[in-house]
Amino acid sequence: MSFDERRGYVASRPELRLPVTxxxxxxxxxxxxxxxxxDSVNVRLMFDxxxxxxxxxxxxxxxxxx
Length: 66
Hints:
It is built from two helices and three strands. The protein has helices at 25-35, 49-65, and strands at residues 2-4, 8-11, 20-22.
């Protein structure tokens, strides 16, 4: 999984015909689960460095807002 400033989080796997995009990690997980068969869903998100940085940035921003 990666992060693109224009599209948000982007995930791709051979099981998914096209890359899946979403603005949040929760939204990405939901879209992937909806595309896969219900019995075989085991979504494990693996971040590249861009996605990891964005995840940390969003968490820090949420903590400052509290």
